[in-house]
Automatic annotation (TrEMBL):
Organism: Olea europaea subsp. europaea
Protein name in the entry: Maltose excess 1-like, chloroplastic
GO CC annotations, alphabetized: chloroplast envelope
Record InterPro entries: MEX1/MEX1-like
Transmembrane segments: 134-158, 165-185, 191-215, 227-245, 251-269, 281-303, 315-336, 348-365, 371-388
Taxonomic classification: Eukaryota, Viridiplantae, Streptophyta, Embryophyta, Tracheophyta
GO MF term (any one): maltose transmembrane transporter activity
Length: 410
């Protein structure tokens, strides 16, 4: 843990110590000066610290939150200053698990950085050899949903000041965009759709980074949040419907209905016509919609595998393994801070996008039995250790207590 060091001769050195609340088992950091605690709360970590050391600004946001409040920023509690050393000793496991999960979340940047690299290399080889049909194994619709979901989740994590998660989502946006560029070159993605996607991605990255560095007007940020809410609520039903074309009629009706509903809901919220509960639900709908867009990418990919099993050889097993590893590294942190939305998205990415596609590849003899068993057993062991370690850190006797708090709140 670190203290805030001040230049000599200006303000006496303030002593800081962690304070633990015995009745709620929540770790909270207490600083002797509220002024410097507030200052520390809004400090940002450098990219080098996040990528290499896995340091996290989450250390002051350890208060678990209910599932319905996953979009809320974790507040810093500075009022509990009376706990003694006996309580500190008892909760050493909690402090250690906090540090470990933060490092895991930072380490997730490495597999996510390499996530699309094998697929990009494979696509490049197919393009250079003139085998454009092999790129049809990668559905552009699934990539689009994942890309839009990552862009929306970037806004979600920026608002929560989850620095390492912001880096992960940024890497996801950039790498997926490169793959979509290759699909457009292979004519596996319509050019007008690619141009529209490019404009949205460029605008989203600019707005998000300006918000991260506190260079963005609040009203512009509100407009962006309304946009991603409308875009997400409009795209999700349409994308889900279009995935199953031609087995369902090719229509834009789901998108039109959801778009109209989303616009009406946003206008009512802006005019103050919604109740506080309705406004709160609308705010959480944006982040949940982003998670569902990300989750649907796995469904679209598996549906493509089912329809065109011969194209499975166009997939990269290393890409699927990296997806499992990257999302798996995020699970302990999401469980520790009781962020149900984050936990759901990361678990789904592990199970369906990573392991699910490996199952398809194994069934069609695209990977060896040893590779498949090693990935499967490793994932099961990781989940088991994560839940056991979290249960021990919080001092619970049953792992179901941790899972119950994750879903329903403490």
């Amino acid at each position: 843990m670190s203290c805030l060091l001040l230049p000599p001769g200006k303000v006496p050195l303030q002593i800081c110590r962690p304070s633990y609340c015995s009745y709620s088992r929540r770790l909270e950091f207490v600083f002797c000066s509220q002024l410097y605690s507030k200052r520390t709360t809004h400090e940002k970590l450098s990219l080098k610290e996040v990528l290499i050391f896995g340091l996290s600004v989450c250390h002051y946001r350890l208060k678990p939150i209910p599932a319905l409040n996953s979009g809320e920023i974790h507040p810093t509690n500075q009022e509990n200053r009376t706990q003694e050393s006996s309580t500190l000793r008892r909760d050493e496991n909690l402090e250690q698990w906090d540090s470990v999960t933060a490092k895991f979340a930072g380490a997730a940047n490495v597999p996510f950085l390499l996530l699309q690299l094998p697929q990009i290399i494979l696509n490049t080889r197919n393009l250079l050899s003139g085998n454009k049909s092999a790129l049809l194994a990668v559905p552009w619709l699934g990539m689009f949903t994942g890309l839009l979901g990552n862009l929306s989740l970037m806004s979600y994590f920026i608002k929560k000041k989850e620095t390492e998660a912001v880096v992960v989502q940024t890497l996801g946006v950039v790498s997926m965009y490169v793959v979509m560029l290759q699909l457009a070159m292979a004519e596996a993605m319509p050019l007008p759709h690619f141009i529209a996607t490019s404009l949205v991605i460029a605008s989203g990255l600019i707005v998000n980074f300006m918000k991260y560095f506190n260079l963005l007007n609040l009203e512009i940020w509100r407009v962006w949040e309304d946009f991603i809410l409308i875009a997400g609520l409009s795209a999700l039903p349409q994308v889900m419907w279009s995935t199953f074309v031609p087995y369902v009629p090719n229509t834009i009706l789901p998108g039109v209905i959801s778009f109209s509903t989303a616009v009406l809901a946003v206008l009512m919220a802006r005019m103050g016509k919604l109740s506080d509960q309705g406004t709160k639900f609308l705010g959480s709908a944006s982040s949940w919609c982003a998670t569902l867009l990300f989750m649907w990418m796995a469904v679209a990919q598996m549906w493509t595998n089912l329809l065109n099993p011969d194209n499975i050889r166009g997939l990269s097993a290393v890409t699927m393994l990296l997806a499992m590893i990257g999302n798996g590294f995020m699970i302990p942190r999401a469980l520790f801070i009781r962020d149900f939305m984050w936990f759901t998205g990361s678990s789904w990415g592990c199970i369906f996008y990573g392991l699910g596609n490996l199952v398809c590849m194994y069934c069609f003899n695209s990977i060896s039995k040893e590779f498949f068993l090693a990935a499967t057993l490793g994932f099961i062991a990781w989940i088991g250790v994560t839940i056991w370690r979290d249960t021990r850190a919080y001092g619970y006797s049953s792992p179901f207590t941790s899972l119950k708090e994750l879903v329903f709140g403490p």
